[in-house]
Every structure is written in C-alpha cells, then in structure tokens.
Design brief:
Layout (H helix, E strand, L loop, with lengths): L8 H23 L8 H19 L1 H8 L1 H24 L23 H25 L8
Length: 148
C-alpha cells in the first residue's frame, strides 16, 4: 500500500484556496499596523500560520519544494539586519537610535507614519519566517525512544 504525503484531497483543495486569502490578510494587517490594531507581529503570525497550513495539508516534501526553505532562512536573517540598519539610520540622520527620520505626512493617511510602516514590514517578515522555520525544524525532528 502506497503512503500519501499530506492530508486528503478535500483538505488540500481548501488549503490551495484559503492560503492566499490568509497571506493577503496578513499583509493587510502589516501595512495598516500604524493606523489600526495590528502591525508587524500580528501580520507576521498570520502569514506564518498560512505557511504552516500548507505544511500540514501537503507534507514536508511538497512544502520544501514550494517554499524554498533556504531562501526563507536568508530572508529571516536579512530582515533582522535591515531592522538594525534602519534603527542605526536614525543616529546617522542626526537623531537617536530608532529615530523617525522620514516625513510623517498627513494624519490617518497610509503614508503617515515615517519609518513605522517600514519597521512593520520588516518585523512582519522576521516574525513570519522565524515562526514558520521553528515549526519546520521541530516537525523534522525524529525522537527515539530512550531507556527509562
């Protein structure tokens, strides 16, 4: 009997449809985080959960090919570096660490928060990739029965 990777056809079909809606909602939460409750952390968690949905529905082999895990690791690492560079740019611009050195624009406008939306995007990437990769590594571990 041949084993099947992932779950049933129904679960896979529903996942194919809903994963993009969930990712889109995560991006919405990240991009509007300076105007509404949410932001980088909340949106990043939503995106990570969408990727975990793919892992649960399709299995590790498909997910590894579809998501290019090596690229996700590089994206996670580079987002932390970019957060630090942006924070240090506040010092370079004549302010302090994490200083808002961009024009703040009009109140309640999408582009009204200076560097805050950029931080939200970078933190969203960092959180999404970190949470997904932690679960990815834990899902791949095989525990052997030890002697009691």
């Amino acid at each position: 009997m041949k084993t099947q990777n992932g779950m049933t056809l129904i679960v896979k079909t529903v996942t194919r449809i809903t994963v993009w809606i969930i990712v889109l909602y995560g991006f919405y939460i990240i991009l509007h985080g300076h105007l509404t409750p949410g932001g980088g952390f909340g949106g990043g968690v939503i995106i990570a959960l969408a990727l975990l949905n793919v892992l649960l529905a399709f299995g590790r082999k498909f997910t590894e090919k579809w998501l290019h895990i090596g690229f996700l690791e590089k994206l996670e690492s580079s987002s932390a570096l970019l957060i630090l560079v942006l924070a240090l740019a506040g010092i370079w611009a004549g302010g302090s660490f994490l200083a808002n050195f961009l024009n703040t624009g009009t109140l309640f406008d999408l582009f009204s928060a200076g560097t805050l939306p950029i931080y939200n995007i970078l933190i969203g990437i960092k959180v999404a990739m970190s949470l997904f990769l932690v679960v990815w590594v834990l899902a791949g571990l095989k525990f052997e029965q030890g002697e009691e």
